[in-house]
Design a protein that fits this description.
Blueprint: H1 5-8, E1 11-12, H2 15-24, E2 48-49, H3 50-53, H4 64-69, E3 93-95, E4 98-102, E5 105-109, H5 135-143, E6 150-154, H6 163-173, E7 181-186, H7 188-191, H8 198-209, E8 214-220, H9 229-240, E9 244-250, H10 259-272, E10 275-280, H11 295-305, E11 316-321, E12 326-329, E13 340-344, E14 350-354
Parallel strand pairs: 5-6, 6-7, 7-8, 8-9, 9-10, 10-11
Antiparallel strand pairs: 1-2, 3-4, 4-5, 11-12, 13-14
Helix pairs in contact: 6-8
Length: about 350
């Protein structure tokens, strides 16, 4: 499906549009230290909301926000271990658009549309492309599985759903009385808060007040500079609508792999009423090796936070295993050589994970 936001939210989608944007700011391609424009014509397409572009220091080639959204020549250096489906969605897809990985919850991928194309996106192979969804079969499957208590909406980004689509979801899925929780995963609040309209928030509030569903929003946010004034105002509105707010963050070399950045981010989120939920070790995404740190580096960083940052501010540090085996706490992973890690999945399956960081 395509979102009405596609036409209403200003964004940068090509090298030519980026050049025009920079010119308006009195900058050139050269003064912004950008790579050759030809790099933007292949691979994962460029997409940056203008709101987010305004947060970037374009004269600093190491600016962390810039690193997350500007193509890098190293993306073409695909390593043998990198996967087009790094967390094994296909292995757990029971109906097109519906993934049943854990017993009591299902993941619905009803859109492939995003307002931003993060260079480390673990679904970059499907984002922006049409993918099959069989909504009637999804309804039938959920009706036949009363053990499912939670629906998780991801994509793409479910915060790009038009209001009418949310109303349709409410009409069709609230009748599943065994489903008590609706969870939305979104990057939109951090990268373009004004894209979330009051009408859209009203639909979430209706889910909570009229249909008595617990509504959870998991905000994808990776750096304290994404905690803008506009972000804060949106968080206030979502909390007022009865939503429980959590966050998840991806560890990215050059962006947030230091104590101060993560501590500042987690503390600022808690002050706003957002509980840090997951700190993700980077998935084995195609063309993402330059963002990768080792498991041991991640453990050391997490240890530096423990005790020095309030436990309320601490997320769980997790790794999403390749092949569809789900998440495991990284701090439970042990290895004699810091290369091969033996882990046990939630299903009791023994898995070997090879750390590919250099």
């Amino acid at each position: 499906m395509q979102s009405s936001q596609d036409l209403t939210r200003p964004s940068i989608r090509s090298a030519a549009e980026l050049q025009t944007y920079l010119h308006k700011k009195g900058l050139s391609w050269e003064t912004a230290h950008l790579p050759a424009q030809a790099l933007f014509e292949h691979g994962f397409p460029l997409r940056i909301p203008e709101f987010y572009a305004e947060l970037i220091d374009w004269q600093d080639p190491t600016d962390p926000l810039r690193l997350m959204v500007i193509p890098d020549i190293r993306e073409a250096e695909v390593r043998p271990y990198e996967l087009t489906d790094p967390i094994g969605d296909h292995a757990r897809e029971v109906v097109p658009g519906l993934i049943h990985r854990y017993p009591d919850r299902c993941l619905l991928l009803l859109t492939s549309y995003c307002l931003v194309h993060c260079r480390f996106c673990f679904r970059r192979e499907v984002v922006g492309k049409v993918r099959p969804v069989q909504f009637q079969h999804i309804q039938e499957y959920l009706a036949q599985h009363p053990e499912v208590r939670e629906l998780i909406f991801s994509g793409g980004d479910p915060f790009t759903f038009p209001v009418g689509f949310v109303q349709s979801l409410t009409q069709h899925l609230t009748q599943l009385t065994h489903v008590t929780t609706w969870r939305f995963h979104s990057r939109v609040p951090a990268i373009d808060p004004a894209a979330v309209s009051d009408e859209w928030i009203g639909q979430l509030q209706e889910l909570h007040t009229q249909w008595k569903k617990r509504v959870i929003i998991v905000i994808h946010i990776n750096h304290p500079r994404e905690v803008t004034t506009q972000f804060k105002h949106l968080v206030e509105k979502l909390i007022a609508a009865g939503c429980l707010l959590l966050s998840q963050t991806v560890l990215l070399k050059g962006v947030n792999t230091d104590h101060k950045t993560l501590a500042d981010l987690f503390r600022s989120l808690v002050l706003l009423g957002v509980k840090p939920y997951y700190l993700h070790h980077l998935d084995q995404v195609v063309g993402s090796h330059h963002f990768r740190i080792s498991i041991e580096e991640g453990k050391t960083l997490f240890h530096s936070l423990r005790g020095n940052v309030s436990g309320v501010c601490m997320p769980e540090y997790v790794l999403d295993l390749p092949g569809g085996d789900g998440k495991v706490p990284v701090m439970w992973m042990h290895s004699d050589d810091h290369k091969e890690y033996q882990v046990t999945t939630f299903e009791g399956k023994k898995v070997t994970y090879v750390d590919q960081a250099e």
